[in-house]
Structures are given as structure tokens and as C-alpha cells.
């Protein structure tokens, strides 16, 4: 899996008309739901725009992912759940990106490294 921890922290924020240009310009991902649009932005941008919320660390699985693959998300989420670490998974075209609570980022990375080592045996 070759998990890599991004040193940048991120925040999930709701996009409003007042902050849309700044938020959308800085976002690394968005999702439209019936209730509105969520953007994933650097925590510093969210703070500058007075958008409160929890900070998350991003761990990218460097393995080339397949959007139709079965089991990767389950294996990763189970490994993190065993350590009592929440995880929000964003699957993109090339890689899966895991957003974990900032305070648990090192434990999450270690759990993923352990899982990666176990699958190589």
C-alpha cells in the first residue's frame, strides 16, 4: 500500500456563497449532497475564513488503486478501527486518500504500515 502521511492538516467545511471562491479555490476535493457542498481544504485556509471543525491528516496509499477493486477499503478501515481510529476514505482515480483525526495520525500511519507489511508476507 505504501502509505504516506501528508504534513498538511485538512478540514471538511460546508461551502457557502460568502466563502465559495476562496474555499473552492483551495480545496483538494468536494462533494455535492442534497444539503449542500462539502469541501476538503487546508486547515489554515479554513481558520482564515473562520470555519470551525476538526482537523484531519491525510494518508495517501501510493499503490495504484482500481475504482472497482474489492476489499482495500474494508482492510484499511478494519485495521484503523482495531486501533479505535476514525477514517474518512476518498477514492480518486489513481490513489485512495484516508483522512484521520489529526491527533491520531502517527498511530494511523503505523497501523497502515503494519497492515502493508503483513500483506507482503
Secondary structure: elements and pairs:
Elements: E1 3-14, H1 20-26, E2 29-33, E3 36-42, H2 43-48, E4 56-61, H3 72-82, E5 88-91, E6 96-101, H4 105-120
Antiparallel strand pairs: 1-3, 1-4, 2-3, 4-6, 5-6
Helix pairs in contact: 3-4
Short précis:
With 121 residues, the chain is an alpha+beta fold. The chain is built from 4 helices and 6 strands. The chain has a 6-stranded antiparallel β-sheet with strand order 2-3-1-4-6-5.
List the helices and strands in order: EHEEHEHEEH
Poorly predicted runs of 5 or more residues? none
Widest sheet: strand ordering: 2-3-1-4-6-5
- Tally of DSSP β-strands: 6
Quickly give the structural class. Answer: alpha+beta
Number of helices: 4
> Helix fraction?
25-40%
Mean pLDDT: 93
Morphology = globular
Distance between the termini: 13 Å
Largest sheet: 6 strands, antiparallel
β-sheet strand percentage: 25-35%
Provide the gyration radius in Å. 15 Å
